[in-house]
Amino acid sequence: MNRIWLRQQLIGFLNEDIGFGDQTSQAIFGDEIGVAVISAKSQGIFCGTDVIIEAYRLVSDQIKVKMYKKDGEAFVTGEELARINGPIIELLSTERVVLNLIQRLSGIASLTHEAVQLVAGTGVKISDTRKTTPGLRMLEKYAVVCGGGINHRFGLDHAVLIKDNHIAQTGSVSATLQQVKRAIGHLVKIEVEVENEEQLKEAIEEKPDLIMLDNCSPKQAADWCKLIPESITVELSGRMTKEQLKDYAKTGVDVISMGALTHSVKAKDISMNILVKEGGGHA
Fold first, then answer.
1. Are the C-beta atoms of 97 and 14 separated by less than 8 Å?
2. Residue-range domain boundaries for the chain
3. The domain over range 116-263 is classified in CATH as 3.40.50.800
4. Which of 99, 147, 243, 253 is 20 to 30 A away from residue 14, measured at CA?
């Protein structure tokens, strides 16, 4: 997690929501001090400690945060996740941005955890993809790790991933791999996506770092894995669902990547309630 980047993002998110001030809270509250209690209304895996701490640090130096859950820890319905102590106006004006983020991130961490548990004991790793919400990639990929998964490339500059459109340009898997190897630096990993056995055999001959099997059946994946040497990492991808994971995990692949971890996740139900402290002063 890059905290500097996170703070920059939170400044934008808070400016978008607060504008020139929370008119409702400013009309009702003065300088009252209170406690915001963040609680779970569902169960899952928590993610969002830095979001809570950094967001409230930005809006007021009077605010104190006490976390009851660490990122990656399980929570149950009714459990307190955090308490935030400070001016009520600041607690409320920051509430929606904080909840929106930690609800989504905890949803991603929880879904990833479910997927990881389904393949437990097989040696297969669960990975995300680049199918993330624009602007939230760092946070969403961090949530995947909190759920026990691993990250695929962060962006297009992280690694080479040769797909059908690239192959169409050069005419073959072999030609594409050869051209890429001439163009990139020695530290950049190369992955190629294959859709049939002919492409697979071409890829094996050129010795990429990874081969991605795209949209194939469990039987097809198992047959193809027998052809691929152990020196090449095998990734399986293509509209993967939780229901399919157990069957695909038995095929011999090393990694299963799932866009659904980030693009189709359901946010966790997490709420915030304010406890007003009488007489001012910090709670």
1. yes
2. 3-109+266-276, 116-263
3. no
4. 147
